[in-house]
Amino acid sequence: MRVACIDIGSNTTRLLVADHAGGALLPVVQVRAFTQLGRASRPQEPLAEDVVASLAEVVAEQAAAAREAGATAVRVVATAALRRVSNGVAVCAALSGAAGRPVELLSAEEEARLAFAGATASLACGPAEPIGVADVGGGSSELIVGTRADGVTWSRSLALGSGDLADVHLCADPPVAAELQAVRGAVAAALAGVTAPPVTRAVAVGGSATSLARLVGPRLDADALACAVEKLVAAPAAVVAVDHELDPARVRLLPAGLLVLAGVVALLGPLEVADGGLREGVVLGLATAGS
Fold it and tell me: Which segments constitute the Ppx/GppA phosphatase N-terminal domain (predicted)?
């Protein structure tokens, strides 16, 4: 069965088309657009019409690509950037016309459930083994604990996103020490008082995590993240992007996402970069419902 997800996030809007066979997902088409919706979305303020129009063009293009790839079911979801604006429901309704299907505004709890399902689907772990998942996005971060058998048993959604932190604190290219320290302070404040249940292992999903894997490998611990900081501040974003085959827009956000992940490592322990996340959770759900 071929299914698809369009994920309207705070930093990017992404399409995943995948085949589902034998309980596994095989990606067929993956498209990413740096729409940077978080920059235009302010809490309890309306999203501007020109921003909605530009986003609708991207959504329409990705919906067309899903149809051309032969997806028999497509689900379009939106997350933190549209949750926080005053007209998020109306924006989703407007985008539905571009998508050719309803655009769903996910709650933080549903986002956590789907991210956990996608992150743990391919993990080699016992059904009752407690797993931690850190989903660091552009406008929020979801911290999740659960098991394969029971699903999510604990979660927290924090207003702590790489895009927001970069926009507020990271002005220099590359960032300077005082800017990085400001981000560390914001992360520490957001995580103060958060106590997660114990886990046997923890994984990271989201654009920051997958990009960091190119810099330091798939295991993100304190030493690896410190090494990544050194690489990111050694040269301007355009140079780092070429050296590590990353998008310059992602490199600009990466120091902020990295420092959020460093805070999560202190909370959950070392992180492994997972193969799946929110989009994989969505398409797995579509495939299961259609089988």
Answer: 16-286
Could you tell me if 166 and 255 are in contact, meaning their C-beta atoms sit under 8 angstroms apart? Answer: yes
pLDDT in tens, the chain (291 residues): 999 999 999 999 999 999 998 888 999 999 999 999 999 999 999 999 999 999 999 999 999 999 999 999 999 999 999 999 999 999 999 999 999 999 999 999 999 999 999 999 989 888 899 999 999 999 999 999 999 999 999 999 999 999 999 999 999 999 999 999 999 999 999 999 999 999 999 999 999 999 999 999 999 999 999 999 999 999 999 999 999 999 999 999 999 999 999 999 999 999 999 999 999 999 999 998 876
User: Is 197 buried (19+), middle (13-18) or exposed (0-12) by CB count in 10 A?
Assistant: exposed
What pTM did the predictor assign? 0.95
Task: Write out the H or E segment, with its range, that includes residue 92.
Answer: helix 88-99
The domain 2-108+279-290 is classified under which CATH number: 3.90.1640.10, 3.30.70.1070, 3.30.70.120, 3.30.420.40?
Answer: 3.30.420.40
Going from N- to C-terminal start, the domains of the chain cover 2-108+279-290, 123-273
